[in-house]
Design a protein that fits this description.
By secondary structure, the protein is an alpha/beta fold. About 40% of the residues lie in helices and about 20% in strands.
Length: about 140
């Protein structure tokens, strides 16, 4: 039997709203938390999607209950947040781009090697109907 994971979604903006229901309904996800620097956004997500709030990114990566971090923050924060989460022992899913500099991309790669945790960049446009059609042709 697969081990169930607990996911903390970091960033409650427009893009993340598509992923909260996906994570909540995934058969290997036990629980979903949300977090945003703007507390009202986290509260709105909590109420709309019936999920709990975790106070900060730092609390999420230090929590023994949370096993994965999903990053939906502004692009310039992706590299640092992903590397820090990996080094804290969390698997990481990140919206695109991976990072905004080669140095930050290298930090993520180094963190994967050191932590032996999984990093996944969530490039979702490959599933757009037009992209799928072009691949078929």
């Amino acid at each position: 039997m697969n081990k169930k994971i607990t996911v903390a979604i970091i960033g409650c903006g427009e893009f993340a709203k598509n992923f909260v229901p996906l994570f909540k309904n995934h058969p290997t996800v036990k629980k979903v938390y949300v977090c945003d620097l703007i507390k009202e956004k986290a509260q709105q997500y909590s109420e709309k999607y019936d999920v709990e709030i975790i106070e900060s990114f730092e609390k999420a990566i230090s929590s023994s209950e949370i096993t994965a971090i999903a990053i939906f923050t502004q692009r310039h924060t992706h590299g640092d947040l992903a590397a820090r989460a990996l080094l804290a022992g969390k698997d990481v899913y990140s919206a695109v781009p991976m990072a905004i500099s080669i140095e930050d991309c290298k930090k993520i790669i180094d963190a994967v090697v050191l932590s032996k945790k999984t990093y996944m960049m969530g490039e979702t446009c490959v599933y757009y109907p037009c992209a799928m059609y072009c691949r078929e042709k």
